[in-house]
Amino acid sequence: MSHAEQPRSDAELLEETERIVAFWTELSLPGLFDVHSHFMPKNVMDKVWSYFDSAGPLTGSVWPISYRFAEDERLEVIRGFGVRRFTSMIYPHKPSMAAWLNSWGADFAARTPDCLQTATFYPEDDAAEYVEQAVANGTRIFKSHIQVGNYSPNDPLLDGVWGAISDAQIPVVIHCGSGPAPGTHTGPGPIAALLQRFPKLPLIIAHMGMPEYVEFLDLADRYENVRLDTTMAFTDFSEAGAPFPRNELPRLLDLQNRILFGSDFPNIPYPYLDALHAVRRLDLGDDWVRSVCWGNGAALFG
User: Fold this and answer.
1) What is the per-residue pLDDT for 6?
2) Is 190 strand, coil or helix?
3) Is 250 exposed, middle or buried (0-12, 13-18, 19+ CB in 10 A)?
4) CA 163/CA 268 separation, integer angstroms
5) What's the pLDDT at 4?
6) Concatenated DSSP letters for 68-112?
7) Contact call for residues 37 and 262 (beta carbons, < 8 A)
8) Where does residue 209 fall: left (phi above 0), alpha (psi -120 to 50 degrees), or beta otherwise?
9) Which pLDDT score, from 0 to 100, does residue 1 have?
10) Which portions of the chain are predicted below pLDDT 50?
């Protein structure tokens, strides 16, 4: 645990849990739908946490992990919050890793029925083969991390992947914005090129495309299968460095049915409740908040 981080006490967790339950109860929701949460093999999660502890080059600042618990405890916490459906966002940073992660993701979903079975991929010779296998095995959602994986979404080795995913219409949460730091292949340009070739791709742009919010909203306007998730967007933490332009708020209303709540749990440097308050204080109305925090995810994933 980093020196900057103190473990959350039982009392703090209890108070937060009560406030989160009150949040969705007051909106007459059955709970929350979180499309962007992380559950990973322990050795992978440990490495992710170690990266954040070292203030890695992408973050460049202290990043305490708010929910640094063992897997069973994290499940207890997120379920206690009233999150009825969540994901196990897994992603490789090198070849020969994705197929193994997909196997883990399938096993995790089998023993965690409230988690959408999650799979991933990397540009490599057998990518299309193991993605087709993941589809056949019941994957409900894919994760692509352009920044950490440091690959182009238009790598020819991914053509078969995108074709299979487009045919199956399984959503892909894709971290393609240039936050928290630009990567070789991040930004709206590569995604625009990808969508020109695969216009039916069901992409969920992670973090609202931060910081290129406007350009990714433009892509959502252009392509009906493009959605965005709220992960880390609108919070005090993100607004300090990449504020969402307030003149673009009406567009969020226009896209009400294509914005989904995401949290990045457990790897967030603030309480989960902050993400919910950030969505609500946009002041776009309770119907909008209900759609984002439950309705859109429930409709998309049945």
Assistant:
1) 58
2) helix
3) exposed
4) 33
5) 44
6) ---HHHHHHHHHHTTEEEEE-----SSSS-HHHHHHHHHHHHHH-
7) yes
8) left
9) 42
10) 1-4
